[in-house]
Amino acid sequence: MKNLLLTTTLTFALTVPAFAAGIHDGGHDDEHMAGHGHADMMQVGRPGTPAEASRTIEITMRETSDGEMIFEPDDLSFQPGETVRLRVHNAGEVDHEFVMDTHENNEEHRKLMQKFPEMEDDDPNAIRLAPGETGEIVWSFENAGKFQFACLIPGHMESGMHGPITVAENMAQAEVEYTTGTIKKIDAGAGKVTIMHGPLAKLDMPAMTMVFRADAAMIDSMSEGQEIEFVADRVEGKLTVTEIK
Ligand SMILES: [Cu+2]
What global pTM score does this model have? Predict the structure, then answer.
């Protein structure tokens, strides 16, 4: 009798956690997780900590006047093992999301979102933003390979919202050229910063002092007189600081 009771208690103890986990992961999550493996360690990498981040990359999502939906920049390159802060801004008029994954997982996820348009998931490799919102993902690109970023809201990827992520040795250095500069003036209210800078090869601009756009979080991290290394590009037709070291 005593033995039977012990057995029953043991069985119960072993069953309960499994049952609880089953409920917790229920619904579409099971199907969803199957494609991703463990949420915290994916082929595309893992969530990083802000202290690990070596640089910040600004990404803008928006619609264009000719009906396309785009990411700026439209491709991303990283070093294997590199941790970066991805600051994503929705400059459009509808919700958008930024998801990083393998092509296969994105395709699977895209189909799921077609099937469940109401689905709002909260994966660490993705961020969904309402118009005007800005958010961040700190991410470690652990594995070399070709991945993809996309917006998987039905119709958006088809309208242009996808781009390649290349994680390869020396890729980041080859693609990104930092320019040194000194911050002369900050106009936080207008989202502008005046930088005396060296030549900007990518823009074919000589050394000069000029005004750039920068987002609020980036301006927050700046101070007048500060020496910086930065990358600038045209975003929505305006010269914008897109990365800062
Ligand atoms: Cu979108």
Answer: 0.60
